């Protein structure tokens, strides 16, 4: 369920495509006539090379390297390698890849733009190779002092091998793009894969091994064929996803202050611990299970209480319990799972919110398809929408040990994928701020048709009444706040402008403190024609004083200019109504569009060394 995660994805304008390509030998639907093809790469690049961007302009030299074996930690596991001999595994690989090609070409070829790699990976969604730390100049203004010593890291899908068949954007291997800002020296930029079990094994084998979750099982013949092939790979010892996980770690990042660790996250697996080295490089440490207490997957959107250092999280899945809640206390001890059996249907729950007293979930109309007949007769997708389902909000005490005190209230038509914040008001009310996804039926297949309208939702837990107020009519998602205010009443949020999703053409600042019946946009910066960014991230001038102005800080993001094929790191003044750009760093090459990012403070980076 990886990329459920990061939300948002799907067809991309096919007008410009990456170069260096060879045709895919399969019958093509008519919509592909204006598309050439992407390169099908069977071997990883291991030498210094010069690549080109979507416009054919040369990019800077990059070196793809294999990171040294990661250090072991007591509860962090490195992948187990396959046990077959090299000659037999080579023959197996040839046979399995031939069968994979057969399925891709004749049983389950790409049938829609949302899973056609020539469309999904076009323009600045095309993958890039790894890049070691590379100095980059501050092209405009001066970087604020509060950024010094820290690093901005953004996660996103970047397939190691270009796909031979159907491919959804969610199915790409996680790559971290890191801008380190050392004190007294120029910034450095690097791009590194998260060395997941999947990435590591496929690199060793030299080709793709894992089936794609979001694009590999369309209809019964494809399910049977890919299932049989995966079973053969497993039984032959080529891969062991049961022991090592299936995660792509392509969705988000989190620094957990109670364990002093940085994680790359994807909701289909355990967190992958990573660190930033003193020279600005990224190293993967391995899967982390919190002293053996986390045996299954974890959300890509854990919530961190900045005042208590507690971490709250959950997982969801296709079999009961469909939702499981847990927290990791301030002493780094993961507390027992709290299974939520009152969620009675498998539902896509990508994010949640916390208050000082509660954890808040949304049971929405985007559902996990577990009906075999749907696979045979329907779209065959794991994810779908149920227009007959009535959405609900579920509220459980945040230190609950079971679900006895969980309260569900119906909120028809409320389909939250990402939460922004929530807090308690009075004795009986909670307030939540979140984008509500309109037209949920398009969530995976036609994301460009989805509109996300930010709402303030007020729930009275005593009476069960719900009040809803639209905050803005614009298409907004990927919302963040000053992280000091997570779970506490706050005023300001910073959100990406979908144009259309998943491309972000600007950032708006919302003030939801008053005026519940009018548009609450109080700041805006559009990036300009042909320029697109990603999720904004707020960095406060002070990270510890709640008395400081909530918006006293900066909004940062990578922004790509499709006109010239260049990317920048933008720093915007959060207090300014125009979100004035105070600094820009020219990056050594383009950064593909991706999912969620994080700014890691100087003091936290030092804890990772
Ligand atoms: Fe997300």
Automatic annotation (TrEMBL):
GO terms for molecular function: carotenoid dioxygenase activity; metal ion binding. GO terms for cellular component: chloroplast stroma. Keywords: Dioxygenase, Iron, Metal-binding, Oxidoreductase. This is Carotenoid cleavage dioxygenase 4. It comes from the Eukaryota. InterPro entries: Carotenoid_Oase. The keyword Iron applies. Residues 22-91 are annotated as: Disordered. Fe cation binds at residues 301, 350, 418, 596. Binds 1 Fe(2+) ion per subunit. Belongs to the carotenoid oxygenase family. Its cofactor is Fe(2+). Residues 45-54, 73-90 have a biased composition (Low complexity). GO terms for biological process: carotene catabolic process. It holds the Pfam family RPE65.
């Amino acid at each position: 369920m990886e990329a459920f995660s990061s939300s948002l994805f799907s067809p991309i304008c096919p007008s410009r495509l990456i170069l260096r390509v060879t045709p895919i030998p399969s019958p093509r639907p008519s919509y592909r006539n204006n598309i050439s093809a992407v390169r099908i790469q069977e071997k990883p690049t291991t030498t210094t090379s010069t690549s080109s961007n979507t416009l054919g302009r040369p990019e800077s030299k990059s070196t793809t390297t294999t990171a040294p074996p990661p250090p072991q930690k007591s509860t962090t596991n490195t992948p187990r390698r396959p046990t077959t001999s090299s000659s037999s595994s080579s023959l197996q690989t040839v046979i399995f890849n031939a069968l994979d090609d057969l399925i891709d070409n004749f049983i389950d070829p790409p049938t829609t733009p949302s899973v056609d790699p020539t469309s999904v990976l076009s323009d600045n969604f095309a993958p890039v190779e790894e890049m070691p730390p590379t100095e980059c100049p501050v092209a405009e203004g001066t970087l604020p002092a509060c950024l010094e010593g820290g690093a901005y890291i953004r996660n996103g899908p970047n397939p190691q091998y270009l796909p031979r068949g159907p491919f959804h954007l969610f199915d790409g291997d996680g790559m971290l793009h890191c801008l380190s800002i050392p004190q007294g020296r120029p910034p450095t930029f690097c791009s590194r894969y998260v060395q997941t079990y999947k990435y590591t094994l496929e690199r060793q084998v030299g080709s793709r091994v894992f089936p794609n979750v979001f694009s590999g099982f369309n209809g019964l013949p494809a399910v049977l064929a890919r299932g049989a092939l995966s079973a053969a790979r497993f039984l032959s010892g080529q891969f062991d996803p049961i022991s090592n996980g299936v995660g792509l770690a392509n969705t988000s990042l989190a620094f957990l202050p109670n364990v002093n660790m940085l994680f790359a996250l994807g909701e289909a697996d355990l967190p992958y611990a990573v660190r930033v080295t003193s020279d600005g490089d990224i190293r993967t440490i391995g899967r982390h299970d919190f002293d053996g207490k986390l045996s299954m997957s974890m959300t890509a959107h854990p919530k961190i209480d900045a005042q208590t250092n507690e971490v709250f999280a959950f997982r969801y899945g296709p079999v009961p319990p469909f939702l499981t809640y847990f927290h990791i206390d301030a002493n780094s001890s993961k507390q027992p799972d709290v299974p939520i059996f009152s969620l009675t249907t498998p539902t896509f729950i990508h994010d949640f919110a916390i208050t000082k007293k509660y954890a808040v979930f949304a049971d929405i109309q985007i559902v996990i398809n577990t009906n075999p007949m749907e696979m045979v007769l329907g779209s065959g997708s794991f994810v779908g929408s149920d227009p007959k389902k009535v959405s609900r909000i579920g509220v459980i005490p945040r230190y609950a040990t079971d679900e006895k005190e969980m309260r569900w209230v119906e909120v028809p038509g409320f389909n939250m994928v990402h939460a922004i914040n929530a807090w308690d008001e009075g004795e009986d009310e909670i307030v939540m701020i979140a984008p509500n996804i309109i037209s949920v039926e398009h969530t995976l297949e036609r994301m460009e048709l989805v509109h996300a309208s930010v709402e303030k939702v007020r729930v009275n837990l005593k009476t069960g009444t719900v009040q809803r107020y639209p905050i803005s009519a614009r298409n907004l998602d990927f919302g963040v706040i000053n992280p000091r205010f997570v779970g506490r009443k706050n005023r300001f949020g910073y959100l990406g402008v979908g144009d259309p999703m998943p491309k972000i053409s600007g950032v708006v600042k919302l003030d939801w403190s008053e005026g519940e019946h009018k548009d609450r946009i109080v700041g805006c910066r559009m990036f300009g024609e042909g320029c697109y960014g990603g999720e904004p991230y707020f960095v406060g001038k002070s990270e510890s004083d709640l008395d400081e102005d909530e918006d006293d800080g900066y909004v940062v993001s990578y922004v790509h200019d499709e006109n010239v094929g260049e990317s920048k790191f933008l720093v915007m003044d959060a207090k300014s109504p125009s979100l004035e750009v105070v600094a820009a760093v020219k990056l050594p090459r383009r950064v593909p569009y991706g999912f969620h990012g994080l700014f890691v403070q100087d003091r936290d980076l030092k804890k990772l060394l």
